[in-house]
Automatic annotation (TrEMBL):
UniProt name for this protein: Polysaccharide deacetylase family protein
Gene3D superfamilies in alphabetical order: Glycoside hydrolase/deacetylase (3.20.20.370)
Pfam families documented for this protein: Polysacc_deac_1
Domain of life: Bacteria
InterPro entries: Glyco_hydro/deAcase_b/a-brl, NODB_dom
């Protein structure tokens, strides 16, 4: 079934030159992972979700009410704090959204419909696709598309799996026919094409480096750590962008970055980018369309 082939070369010494809108040096893609309400829970799955504010899991037969409430904070308070911040700065973002999480919070769906942010499918539920058989994956993709169309009024054109896809995911996305990209890779600073069967398909890589999930693992201990990591990444890419424009992915979660102190770090980063200039705050679908339009011949074998 043509499983993915590892590529250690990429663009090498000759990365392609793209012209971002406004001749920006860096396309900054802020991604909000909206998963609250679709995570594992004891009442439905017989196991508790293991990723909360601390990296631990409460085992059955005990229900983890603490972690459940952390996720509820994200959907009740954190996500709206982020939406207010983006509106204040007129910043366009992409929501990696689990379809079920959207169904459980019509307020968020209404805000997304009104705001113009992109909704990228993050699964039907926030589940590990590599544990599902092909038919179950196909059904979950179709169900996620229908659900997001109904709740948010837009058909998702991008896909991002929880942590990693299965070896079949990309083929199933191409088979579905309506996806323009996925973000199921962490291996580059620029989009790139892959060949899936007879069709080219675009990968818009994501990042676990510039990501607030590192608070969960103790790798970032303060809001200032997150700001410094993102600022340094942007500044370095900005310097490189003098010759070859770059892309920076920033990953955040309402239950984490939505806490006031951490939101202030994201605010300071946006301030820094706007003050420095030369950046394009972009939805991933717009990055993908720019790449499709400017580099349609870069399909790799």
């Amino acid at each position: 079934m043509n499983p993915p082939v590892r590529d250690f070369v990429g663009y090498g010494r000759r990365p392609p030159v793209v012209r971002w809108p406004g001749d920006a040096r860096v396309a900054v893609s802020i991604v909000v992972n909206y998963e609250e309400g679709s995570e594992r829970s004891f009442d439905r799955d017989g196991v508790n979700e293991g990723l909360g504010e601390v990296p631990r899991r409460v085992d059955a037969p005990y229900r983890d009410l603490a972690t459940e409430s952390v996720y509820e904070y994200g959907s009740r308070a954190g996500v709206h704090r982020l939406l207010r911040l983006f509106a204040r700065y007129d910043v366009a973002t992409t929501f990696f959204a689990a379809a079920e999480a959207l169904e459980r919070n019509p307020e968020v769906c209404a805000a997304l419909r009104d705001s113009g942010h992109e909704v990228c499918a993050h699964g039907w539920r926030w589940t590990e696709e590599w544990t599902l058989d092909v038919d179950a994956q196909r059904a979950a993709i179709e169900r996620a598309v229908r659900s997001i169309e109904a709740t948010c009024g837009q058909r998702p054109v991008g896909w991002y799996s929880r942590w990693m896809p299965s070896v079949d995911t990309r083929r199933l996305l191409v088979e579905e026919g309506g996806f323009r990209y996925d973000s199921n890779a962490y291996n580059d600073d620029l989009p790139y094409f892959v060949q899936v069967g007879d069709a080219p398909f675009l990968v818009v890589p994501y990042s676990l480096t510039f990501n607030d999930s590192r608070h969960t693992y103790g790798q970032l201990t303060s809001a200032s750590d997150f700001f410094d990591e993102c600022r340094r990444g942007f500044d370095y890419l900005w310097e490189e962008g003098d010759h070859t424009p770059r892309m920076l992915s920033i990953g955040v979660h309402p239950r984490l970055i939505g806490q006031p102190s951490r939101t202030s770090a994201l605010r300071d980063f946006i301030d820094h980018v706007l003050t420095k200039g030369g950046a394009w705050f972009a939805r991933r679908r717009d990055i993908a369309e720019t790449w499709w339009n400017q580099h349609p011949t870069l399909v790799r074998d």
